[in-house]
Amino acid sequence: MNDRVDLAEVPLSAVRRVGELVFVSGQVPIDTKTGLTVEGSLTAQLSQVMANLEGVVLSVGADMADVVKTTVYMTDIRDLAEMNAAYRTHFAPGSYPARTTVQVSALAKSEWLIEIEAVVNVGQN
Question: pLDDT by residue (tens digit) across 32-46?
Answer without folding.
Answer: 899 899 998 999 999
